[in-house]
Amino acid sequence: MEKVIRKILFILAVIGTLYHIYLVIHPYLPFWHFRQAILDLTQVQRAAHVFLVSLLGYLMNFAFPKRRRLGGSIPLAVLTGLLLFEFVKLDLPFQLKVLAVIIWGCTMLPTLVPQIQKPSNIACAVLSFLPFIYLVVTYEKLIYRAIMPEPWDLVMAFSEILLVLGVIFRLSGPIMPIFVIVFFLYNLYGYVLPGFISNPGFDLDLLLGKMYCETEAGIFGTITGVSLKYLIYFTTLGAIISRLGFGKIIANMAMLFVGRSPASPGRTTSIMAVLMGMFSGSGAADTQFVATLTKPLYEKVGYNRLVAAGIMATVGSIAYITPPVMGSISFLMVELLSIPYSWIIVMAIGPMLLYLSGIVAYNELYVRKQNLPPMEITSGHDFSYFMRYSYVFVPIVLIIVLIYRGFSINITVTSATVLFVVFAYLDRTVRPPVENLFEALAEGIISLLPIASAVIAANMIMSMMVMSGLASKFSLVLMKISGSSLMFATLFTGFFSLLLGMGVPPIATYVLTSALTAPTIQKLAMINGIPEDAALLATHMFLFYYAVLAEVTPPVALSAYAAASVMGTDPIKTGVYAARVAIPKYLIGITFILSFSGTGLLIIPVLQTVPLGQALIQIIVRYSLSFLAVFFLNVAVVGYFNRHLSSIERVLVGACATLLFYPSSATDLIGFLAVVAFLLKKWIEKHKDRTPLPRDPGR
Fold it and tell me: How far apart are CA 663 and CA 593, in angstroms?
């Protein structure tokens, strides 16, 4: 039975990826009547995407089941049971209520009784067809029934919600579905809450209609559209690169640029992560890849295992902010802010370089402090190898060119994917078996499932917040508790983002923080002299950056877990070391929101606001000071600069670096002079050490 289900899963996954690829070329095919009737409809496309995520997610959990603890399962079952109770109270035919109870049992009972998990997955996979087929058949009428849904609309909406929550629980755990149901119940029972957090409460039939019938809200809203329009194509690109053998080629190229140095393992990991990050937007996947390949190098040199795992985890997460392919948040920003993707590419370059420089600085200082032995990395290749396979970067160049020429993301990435396939089968040294291509197609959508399910959940949460007005209420509270201080509001939001990131993926963290805090942060930024458009971009880049940091911040850090699984270390301790590695990363995001000078790190806001000459000066100064700050903060963290530093020296150097981070003329000047004084002191000490002792005249 399991072999049959796995085969079905594989076939359906290949079909699912091919369906999304077909959507790219479909508008250019002459199937006019069919095209206008079904595949051009946003609602149907998104419903098909959600259906595939649900269907494949349940089959995936049958083939590769994950056990979940009762600590999270019981609250989810209780909360959804409360929603079921409210549904049964509706004036509906008895058979529809029975169907709702059956669907609740199939989706939620296995959270309490793991023994029935496998048969329930098959039942849920079959039930996934019901709301999808119903929507396809009635899509013309559903749009007009969002406010006053009919009985079958309600039961299909209830079914879709439970099926989505069930698959999220099975793929990613209970936290995201619990968030969704809490927001849903808040809209339902908001009238019983005291004070400003109360709301009038909404009827259940209205909530169900909004979640299922409306195109731009609920389950099939704009955020879900991000997964359909962008994410599937990037996960497919990553799978093609990996399965067709290009990942190993990229890794070999990275090893060509290191050489004989105890810092070579960290350097190799950094280069490899950046190269892979150009093709992949998955932090945990990149961490797993680079950690597996570079583990022997760290062991050969003698790195502390936790330090090595921390470097791997921190480096792996750089994929989220490495252009041109970045994490899912960047595409959501394109939709929410209505800006070109090319802008996000440019704005991400600075934070990525500073993030990377922090990792490199930590690695270099660490090996010198520990006095690790040098080594020779012999990959068996020379520079001719790089020239031989340099064509692997042609698709990346194609992506950049097409994006700047104004082509859509899905066309751009699909073109690059096809180009990789062509290269793979033209190059005899690469040419993989044909079955590898089908495995890549299957992996394209399967690797998307946890991300896509989180995106759908985020869309549901956003819809609930918009209906209840919670976002505007939270913004008022943030303004009040911060005392209109941009610094305090930014620190609070950063902490709030990291706290959310302990339980939800980066895209969900961004959705929640942008809805709840972005208006206040932007308003305070404008009060502090940042122009409106620059404040908007800086606010969302700040939220984007901090949502990414949750990937390496303990206790729940996916990249840290991936590195720990390879290095055999404790995941929590690995997360702590990942947080320590390149600790300046926690200050970089704050830098470009505190003042207009700080936005120079993002380039675009400055270029749009001031003349070119002035903008270039501002950008160069900000980058120079930020790189100094990154280096010297790592000096303080590691406690080494030519020699071991005392505790007092570490504190003083850390304070100087922090002053350089803060984007204002006064702190820049003080920090810079303090750094110069520190360097002068070190030069004098070094000069004294080299001065020969005078001879004793009595000898």
Answer: 9
Give the burial string for 167-204 (b: 16+ CB within 10 Å, else e): bbbbbbbbbbbbbbbebbbbbbebeeeeeeeebeebeb
CA-to-CA distance for 551 and 285, rounded, in angstroms?
12
Q: How far apart are CA 668 and CA 660, in angstroms?
A: 5
The encoded tokens of residue 571 equal 């995941």
What are the counts of helices (DSSP H) followed by strands (DSSP E) for the chain?
Answer: 34, 0
Task: Say whether pLDDT at 35 is over 50.
Answer: no
Q: What is the pLDDT of residues 315-349, one digit of tens each?
A: 877 877 888 777 778 888 888 888 888 899 899 89
What CA dihedral angle connects 180, 545, 674 and 530, to 10 degrees?
Answer: -90
342: helix, strand or coil: helix
Six-digit token string for 169: 């629980």
Global pTM? 0.84
Identity (one letter) of the amino acid at 427? D
Q: Please name the residue that has the structure tokens 């470009």.
A: 592
Q: Find all residues with CB under 8 Å of 15, minimum gap 6, and list them.
A: none
Q: Are 322 and 220 in contact (CB under 8 A)?
A: no
Determine how many CB atoms are found less than 10 A away from the CB of residue 238. Answer: 27
């913004």: which residue's tokens? 475
User: Tell me, what amino acid is at 39?
Assistant: L
CA–CA distance, 274 with 277 (Å, rounded to integer): 5
* Identity of the amino acid at 327: G
Instruction: Yes or no: say if 312 and 306 are a contact pair by the CB < 8 Å rule.
Output: no
Structure tokens of 674?
């303090």
Amino acid letter, 370: Q
Cα 399 from Cα 670, distance rounded (Å): 43
The residues that bridge with 644 in the sheet, in sequence order, are 640
SS3 104: helix
